[in-house]
Structure formats: C-alpha cells, structure tokens
Amino acid sequence: MVIAMSPLGEVFRTRLRKFPSLVNCCTIDWFTAWPAEALINVAKGYVADGDMSLEKDEAGCIEMFKIIHQSVEEKVDEYREVYRRISYVTPTSYLELLSTYKKVLGEQRHSNTQATQRLVRGLEVLKEAEIEIDKMEKVLKESKPELEKTQILVEDKKRDIAAKTIIAEEEKTVVSAEEAIASKQAFEVKTVKDNADN
C-alpha cells in the first residue's frame, strides 16, 4: 500500500495505535488520476467490444473521451481549491461517459435511420405521383378533341333547352289563362247546378 511506505504512513500507523476506532469509524477514499494511456486503452476496448463502429472517427472520439475525462479532473481540483469541497472522478465516471456516449450515439443513429427511411419513402411516393400525373396528362391530351366535341354538344343542348323553355313558358301562360277561364266556368256551372237542385 502506498500509505505504508510514505512518511505519512508512519504517522497514520502511530495514530492507529492510539485511536483504534479511527479504522472502524472512517473510510479512506484514495483515488489517483488515470494516466492518459490507460484512458485511451479503456476507450479502445470499449469501442471494439460494442457495436459503436466509429470507423474513421474512432481515433478522434477516443482522444475526445480522454480530454473530457482529464478536463473534468482538472475542474474537480479547481472546485476543491475554490470551494473547499471534495468530489471524485473515478474509473466508474469514465465508464459512465463511454456508456452514455454509446447510448446517445445509438439513439441518434436510430432516429437518423428512421428519417432516412421516411425521406426515401417520400421520394418514392413523389416519383409514383409524377408517373401518374404524366399518364393523366396523356389521357387528357388524347381525350381533348372528344371533350371539345362534347362541349359543343352541351352548348347546343343548352341553347335547345333555353328555346324550349321559352316556348314552354309561353304555353304555361296560355294554359294558366285557360285554366282560370275553366275554373270560372266550373264555378258558374256549380252555381247553376246548386240553384237547380234547390
């Protein structure tokens, strides 16, 4: 153990003899910073074991992991100096960084894959719509002369119907007049009949 061989270790052993409960009631956390080479090797192993497959970006990402971890260690030292509060950056913290990166990378790849699939499907639908529009344009071009003939026939029918409507209106007026005369005569006949019955 490192403490046992240092001058501090001698002081510690002396205190232990005088105060044995010191060992029973205390916990000593002794963390040393990981060397850069260890950080890089752990990240390489983590990337190689997982399904991250960073390809050409692998070296840059591994270096980024190392820099992030070391910068956090430096900030912890500054925090301790400024606020007199101790926090620890442990190997678990580094492994948590790697697993969080892996999780976020997986989520982003999944969402990118979904977006790509939606885009591809949308493009396929647009191509199919374009083909259908071309077919409809051809059908319209082919049926345009027939449509023009039909429009001419419709216009003729409209004129014919308008003329017949005018004649029908005139006949309706004549019939209405005759109906009024017939109603008047029917009333007179009824009056005569009622008188004869009386």
Structural class: mainly alpha
- Biggest beta sheet attributes: none
What's the total number of strands?
0
Number of helices: 6
Average pLDDT metric: 82
Low-pLDDT sequence parts:
1-6
- How far is it from the N-terminal to the C-terminal residue, by CA? 146 Å
In N-to-C order, the SSE pattern is HHHHHH
3D shape: elongated
Keywords:
198 residues, mainly alpha, 6 helices, disordered N terminus
Brief rundown of the structure:
The chain is elongated.
Describe what you observe in this structure.
The chain has 198 residues and is mostly helical. The protein has a domain at 1-30. Helices cover 85% and strands 0% of the residues. Helix 4 crosses helix 5. The longest helix has 107 residues, at 91-197. It is elongated.
Task: Provide the fold topology.
Elements: H1 2-5, H2 7-18, H3 21-25, H4 36-49, H5 58-83, H6 91-197
